[in-house]
């Protein structure tokens, strides 16, 4: 199945997604269906819109994690940090820990990691001089 490159992430014609073959549904949620490959620019634009749509940090991170399960968490963390100014004080590694806490521990795990990371001393850029934190 080829990526059409459209903003909506169309999955192709009816029946190609393996999710019932409803062409209208494929156009709307095709980018969420298993096997769909997303271009990085398309995923980044969606992550930006999702981060802006949810004012609550936990909810925004949860929806990004839930809708982009195939992307590595360090890439999700970097993308989320770009669009959430409330994460400026945290390193990318801190944001990866928050994503892991959301996945494994829900809201209570997220809150616990958020408290511990907020009080921990910050390190350098993790050895990547070209990465802007």
TrEMBL record:
Biased composition (Gly residues): 11-22
UniProt-annotated stretches for the region Disordered: 1-31
Acidic residues compositional bias, start-end: 1-10
UniProt-recorded name of the protein: Uncharacterized protein
Source organism: Pelomonas dachongensis
């Amino acid at each position: 199945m080829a990526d059409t490159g459209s903003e909506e992430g169309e999955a192709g014609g009816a029946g190609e997604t393996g999710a019932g073959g409803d062409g209208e549904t494929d156009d709307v949620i095709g980018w969420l269906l298993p096997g769909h490959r997303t271009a990085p620019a398309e995923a980044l634009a969606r992550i930006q819109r999702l981060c802006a749509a949810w004012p609550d940090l936990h909810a925004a991170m949860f929806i990004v994690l839930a809708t982009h399960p195939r992307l590595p968490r360090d890439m999700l963390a970097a993308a989320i940090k770009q669009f959430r100014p409330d994460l400026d004080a945290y390193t990318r590694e801190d944001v990866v820990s928050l994503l892991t806490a959301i996945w494994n521990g829900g809201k209570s795990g997220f809150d616990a990691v958020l408290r511990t990371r907020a009080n921990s001393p910050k390190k350098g850029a993790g050895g990547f001089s070209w990465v802007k934190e």
